[in-house]
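Quick note —
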Amino acid sequence: MKRPLLHAFLPVAILAALLSLIALIPENAELLEPSVCSELPVGRELTGWLGERVQESEAERSILAADTRFSKACYKQLGFDERYPDPRCPLLDVSIVFSGQDMNSSIHRPELCLPSQGFQNLQGSPAEVELSNGVRLPFTRLSSVRPDNNNHSATRHFIHYYLFIGKGHLKSTHLQRVLQDMFDRLFTGTVERWAYFQVGCSWGGSSGISEAEAEQRLRRLIAALLPRIIAWQELPARQRPQPTTR
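Predicted structure written out below.
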């Protein structure tokens, strides 16, 4: 009877011992910067798109640690006449949140944060997006609803895609990021400044945009944007763009 009991508690004891080792890492250890640009391209810097920088809100500042950094922008795809945005394109919101020393107060699981901003009925699922450089990346896709600001009796739907970017790491879920962070702290003694990348837009309600169109535009923006801002040379070879052969 003692051996089964020991086997039951051994994994818990090992996990507790590993977690206790995190306390041995200096609190002020230098953060390794993530493999992503610190600023999103704006204006016409991203081919085929018009971007405008957006300031983070006071609410975002108040709930996150003081050393949290932000880069936010909104985008519209340019039409056939590239002087003007496509009038059918919804406004796409992109944000990168860079963590500070304390991960718990810098980056939160989106499934917990979005409800505090009024998003309801969140449904998460894995999704894969092919980028313009041929790389296929895993994401988490979130669908949700929120009251329409222009018609409070109506509902507007939202789609968000997100992933986490570390120093040479791309993780599509909060759990994957946490496990990688624990591994780095315990076995390499390093602390990463993780970047939470999110792109989203709304459809339905007074927008006149269908879910299929919103989905298509989101994927187009992700496909164009990530090859531009990720430092691919810092990632494992299997995640880098492969050279074309003739």
